[in-house]
Amino acid sequence: MPANTLTEMIMGLGVITGILLLYAFSLxxxxxxxxx
Amino acid sequence: MTSFAQYLxxxxxxFRKDLxxxxxxxxGVPVMLVFALLVVFLFHYALQLSPGLQAGLAAGLLWISLxxxxxLGLNRSISLERENHALDGLLLIPVDRSAIYFGKSLxxxxxxxxxxxxxxxxxxxxxQQNMFHPALILVILLGAGAYTGLGTxxxxxxxxxxxxxxxxxxxxxxLALPILIAAVEASRGILxxxxxxxxxxxxxLLLACQILFSAAGLMLFETTLEE
Amino acid sequence: xxxxxxxxxxxDVLSAISFTxxxxxxxxxxxxxxxxxxxxxxxYFHVASAWAGMLSFILAAAGGIGxxxxxxxxxxxxxxxxxxxGLVFGLIxxxxxxxxxxPIWNTWWVWDPRLTTTAIMEIIYLVYFLLRSSLDTPExxxxxxxxxxxxxxxxxxxxxxxxxxxxxxxxxxIAGGGGSVFKMTPRMLLAFGISLVVFxxxxxxxxxxxxxxxxxxxxxxxxxx
Lengths: 36, 227, 225
Description:
By secondary structure, chain B is mainly alpha-helical. Chain B has helices spanning 3-25, 28-46, 55-82, 86-91, 98-127, 134-158, 167-191, 200-224.
């Protein structure tokens, strides 16, 4: 019977996706700010 | 004189100069030694050490105090060049600048080795262990060589920054980790009575570090000191 | 002012789509592992991220070598971008590694050689930025940054090796733990391979964007001075 680690999976995949999106967003933001 | 002979001569001169400066001033090595001892005392109380120390702790203690003391020496060695614009003088020598690297690595190596030789009897005394194994001396030579080889290159980096002294430790320690791990593990094995054959891998790792970092120094030192 | 090349827009779209596809694949296509349960699925992106971080490191070193060889600033932009992006992927790898470790070994941190080496790599990345910020001219930043990154790339395999060897001698007994070794079925292998490709795409995409930002920053500095 596999362990019930669904919450951990969502947390893990969420963190990964979240950081990727955050970084992409930060790049866009910094680019726009420098263009002013 | 062939240019290679000139090169070797330059290394020797720089090495000798560093030793002479130290001999006349005698400020570097004593400070390094005192610092190493202080680290031993700090760790003694922080980790609640006692005589009859396990081989692992003794090895770790040796190398941590040695690493800290050596870093002090590395900083001082390169700082001395910066004072009085001695570095500019060195840079005028018509020889490949990696000679400066090898000369200074050698002097740094000697100072660190000296500290190690003084630490051995002291640690033996403190922890009632005989730390005088010929094999251990070999490990110290290899470890100190690799460490000062890497450290001399990085000290040339840190001296050019605004944060100077503070920067060398954070540049050096993460990169020196394989050296420290290998040195501690080999030392631990020797103190625990293992034959050298079992510790071959660690010794080879130390040798690899020495060769690789010296090669890096050879190729990159000149670039590091460009004006 | 450099207009965004259409190829880059294509890469953006490709990265986004392939990431979403891979995510869907992992969630619905791959089987649930027997003992670990769903959290094992984090593994695909965790390893892919660590892989991207490693790749980034090598890219940064290539930038360093390129700069020292040519003294053209664009190589420095490459180094800088690769280190920053590598920092991000390293962070993802460490955090996802910790989340994956928690339910399996009942601890947030394991002194696993790969995880530890990644953590050290992160610190080395951070030190790169500390080094640059402590230097005054763009030339020094580029030159000394290049030296540092080249020396760093030498140490990473040595570090991994030494930690690996250390672990074989000092195996850590973990309370309540099983092994992390699991057999990968063909479906898992497929998802694994696809994850690697996807993260490599994202790596390229991020580095390109960061590169453009670096170039823009450099131009702004020139205009000001």
